[in-house]
TrEMBL record:
Keywords: Chaperone, Cytoplasm, Stress response
Native source species: Thermogemmatispora tikiterensis
GO molecular function: adenyl-nucleotide exchange factor activity; protein homodimerization activity; protein-folding chaperone binding; unfolded protein binding
Name of the featured protein: Protein GrpE
Record note on quaternary structure: Homodimer.
Record-stated family: Belongs to the GrpE family.
Role, per record: Participates actively in the response to hyperosmotic and heat shock by preventing the aggregation of stress-denatured proteins, in association with DnaK and GrpE. It is the nucleotide exchange factor for DnaK and may function as a thermosensor. Unfolded proteins bind initially to DnaJ; upon interaction with the DnaJ-bound protein, DnaK hydrolyzes its bound ATP, resulting in the formation of a stable complex. GrpE releases ADP from DnaK; ATP binding to DnaK triggers the release of the substrate protein, thus completing the reaction cycle.
Region ranges (Disordered): 1-21
Gene3D superfamilies in UniProt: 3.90.20.20, Head domain of nucleotide exchange factor GrpE (2.30.22.10)
Annotated InterPro entries: GrpE (IPR000740), GrpE_CC (IPR013805), GrpE_head (IPR009012)
Length: 189
């Protein structure tokens, strides 16, 4: 009997040791799992940051390309505007007796085609007679105090201005109506 009790103790001991080993193994595996989960969260966070950085990079590059394209268009337009001005002056100086000549009609056709092409490209002419003076859009080259129009009204377009989208390429040069009081000196007391 003593022998059977001793065998049971020896059997219980290895079984207890196996249970302890299992508990230690489970504890170790849980720690390793937690460490791997932290590491995977770090990698996932790094991936998300990298994706956000890449999206921001693509957007920034797109904006820079758009800005470069717009700058190139504006530079080209600034070089072409004096030619367009010359064409407009030539057409407005055409004598009435030559207005029906085929070459004059051809010049008018070229001017209309050029204007429609510029409009298709998003380029529009600014500065109209009768509108209110706006220092963002107009450059006053003269002030007419004798005009019967309200003060600040654009009386004449000396040179048209142009916009590309919302950017001013060149302000319109205009003559503006002024009041008599703006040119007279204040009376002494």
């Amino acid at each position: 009997m003593w022998h059977q009790g001793q065998e049971r103790q020896q059997e219980a001991r290895p079984q207890q040791a196996v249970e302890d080993d299992k508990a230690q193994l489970v504890s170790r595996l849980e720690r390793e799992l937690a460490a791997e989960q932290r590491r995977s969260e770090e990698y996932l966070d790094m991936l998300r940051r990298s994706q956000a950085d890449f999206i921001n990079y693509r957007r920034r590059v797109g904006q820079e390309q758009e800005e470069a394209s717009l700058s190139a268009q504006i530079a080209l337009l600034r070089r072409l505007l004096p030619v367009l001005d010359d064409l407009g002056r030539a057409l407005s100086a055409t004598p009435p007796e030559l207005a029906h000549q085929p070459w004059v009609q051809g010049l008018h056709l070229v001017a209309r085609r050029l204007a429609s092409t510029l409009a298709e490209l998003g380029i529009r002419q600014i500065g109209r007679q009768g509108e209110q003076f706006d220092p963002r859009l107009h450059e006053a080259v003269a002030l007419d105090t004798q005009a019967s129009a309200p003060e600040g009204t654009v009386l004449q377009i000396v040179r048209p201005g142009y916009m590309l989208g919302e950017r001013i390429v060149r302000p319109a040069q205009v003559v503006v109506a002024g009041s008599q009081s703006t040119t007279s000196s204040p009376s002494a007391p």
